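WARN  no MSA supplied for this record, continuing single-sequence
INFO  ligand: zinc ion
INFO  echoing inputs
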Amino acid sequence: MRKLWMALVLMLVIFCTGCTAQNAGTEEDGLRIVVSAYPAYDFARQVAGEGVQIRMLTRPGIDPHEYEPTPQNMIDIENCDIFIYNGGESDVWVDELLKSVENDSMRIIRMMDCVTLLEEETVEGMEVETEDHAHGETSEEYDEHVWLSPVNVMQIAGSLCDTLTKADPENAETYEENTAEFLSALEELDARFREIAANAKRTTVVFADRFPARYFTEEYGLTYYAAFPGCSSQTEPSAATVAFLIDKIREEEIPFVFSVPYSLSSLPQTISEETGAGILMFNSFHNVSDREFGQVTYIDVMTENAQALARALN
Ligand SMILES: [Zn+2]
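INFO  complex generated
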């Protein structure tokens, strides 16, 4: 009896170490997918389905803009069949890592290669990003937040499906079915955003924070004002920026300003107190918390963003 008990405990220990928070799927001999961050994790999971092993290199709960890669990340990439990353400012460390990885059979998907890119903009009133605030070589070039347009995610999903079916033709039918289901959820989401934008009282949004929603506002024909561009790490806006945003909010009677996750700025609060505008969260889906990992999907987050948008525009 005691032996059986010990064996059970041992099995439990092995089982638990095998499925740390960053893993999904348990099939050792199936397709092994490694991703840099949570958007790619979720999209891969939608296309691959529950049975496929997906490992995320960054951890849940952290601001990916601040991530430093570890030696384990390299080992993970060397042992995978498919590697998916975004290719922008927040995972700029991937390029360095890929140079030293030895894995000839691996297929690589860069999400930014799947869509039409837009440049990061500095619009009127916005803080100009200075050199020492810039994160990587790609800053001041293309905006990295491609996944915030559901239309872009449709293209990314198509590319993921192609790659998975090539890497694992035996399960092609499953991947195609999963992708079709994901695409129809994305189409529904896209229609919802179009409907909100078309029936809204106004078309201007104000981000009293960094601005990850370039692809999003472009897709749905919205005008925006924001304190800081893209992935900017600045938190202290100039008096001119604060004054500009406050004036805009008063002039256009904007009822809500947006804040984004991992914000270190007190600006949303300041502007809210000054103007009486409420604060809403626009979730950039850069990452999720430990508790939400593997549970919260892109569709969930964007559905919440749709509710927030409907309030902000009316
Ligand atoms: Zn970012």
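The pocket of zinc ion is lined by residues 65, 90, 144-145, 212, 231, 286 (CB under 6 Å).
INFO  checksum written, moving to next record
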